[in-house]
Amino acid sequence: MKKKSLSATIKKINCRKLIMPSIFIVFCSIILHTTSICDIFTLPVVSSPAEAAASYHNGDIYVNATLTDLYYSGVNRSDKHKLRACYYYCLYENNCYYVLISASSLGIDSTSPTPPQHIASYNCKAKLESNEGESDSLTQLVSKKLNWTPQALNLMTSKVLINQYRMSQGREYILAGLLGIMSLSAIIHLIVIIVSLINPLLSRTVLRLSSYGNRNELYNMACAEFEDSHVYAPGITLTDNFFIAYDKHNIHIVPLEAIVWAYKFGTLQNRLLHLDISYSLSVVANDKKHYIVHHKTKDAVELVLNALQTRFPEILIGYSEGKSMGTR
Q: What is the pLDDT of residues 59-80, one digit of tens each?
């Protein structure tokens, strides 16, 4: 093996780590695209319900609307017997439009439980939704107020609901915030991994060596010893001065003189209706950091533990040994 083989192993594992943040970024991008959630920060301004309906048909979901002459329909939306929002209607250019306004925006509370019958002017941020599921019941009630037939009113009723109540709940802003945090976290994680691929000295594995001395010197020593080391198990190597172990997602380089405790533990897994035990090796350093490698065989893990105990009798071997020492 060449000296760069340890660096190549670190790069290979970091390449696998690119998968999850990349998936997160793609997932967030798809959600942002399909929900148009980013539009809440650049709302088109409309000055009439007709413009709001036109915006909906043009693909806009959210608007900043200024509406005039809204009349209470007598229909409310409640949740657990608590008034949440009220339906208003607006007659504009021989068409009828419905607006759902939150109770808080109307100033409805225990001291003023009655919605205002008429709103001369109202400005709001609203979500535009299809109104087909609610228009029939609303039309029945509003037609009585206007002394029109339901059939006549239905012909002039817009199928677009201007839903201020939905925007007042803040769900879109919460979702946008969560997606933003997830995307930013994934991007930062991706950048860190890419930097590690370019320069392994800046990888998390090598940076941890700073706890035990000069990380550059320790890393160069580990690389030099790695090529002539004995492989005790797939992914586990003991050199003259280092414990080097890796699995699919992590690689650890720990100076042997820093190890104070090592133990194995098993994990029961269900594979194709067959229960199987996979073993992991945990190594604890003198700075109390735990280094764990997963998915090893019992024989391989025990071989490493025996080698550690033989070379360094002062290392505590076994879970019970370490726990008993910790409780003293």
A: 899 999 999 999 998 888 888 7
Which of 33-42, 66-75, 169-178, 271-280 shows the highest mean pLDDT?
Answer: 66-75
- Enumerate the domain spans of the chain: 39-169, 203-326
The SS3 call for residue 288 is: coil
Q: For residue 61, with 0-12 CB atoms within 10 Å meaning exposed, 13-18 middle and 19 or more buried, which class applies? A: middle
One-letter amino acid of 59? G
33-47 pLDDT per residue, tens: 888 788 888 899 999
Residue 279's pLDDT band (cuts 50, 70, 90): confident
CA distances from 264 to 44, 121, 238, 276, 279 (A): 61, 71, 16, 16, 7
Spell out the alpha helix ranges (H) of 36-163: 49-57, 103-106, 132-146, 150-155
Burial of 110 (0-12, 13-18, 19+ CB in 10 A): exposed
Q: Name the nearest CA neighbour of 71 among 150, 142, 147.
A: 142
Q: Which helix (H) or strand (E) holds 129?
A: strand 118-130
Second CATH level (architecture) for the domain 203-326: Roll (2.30)
Q: How far apart are CA 67 and CA 100, in angstroms?
A: 12
Average pLDDT rounded to a whole number, residues 133-145: 83
Q: In this structure, what token pair is assigned to residue 20?
A: 């999850």
State how far the Cα of 260 lies from the Cα of 240, in Å rounded to an integer. 17
Q: Are 85 and 77 in contact (CB under 8 A)?
A: yes
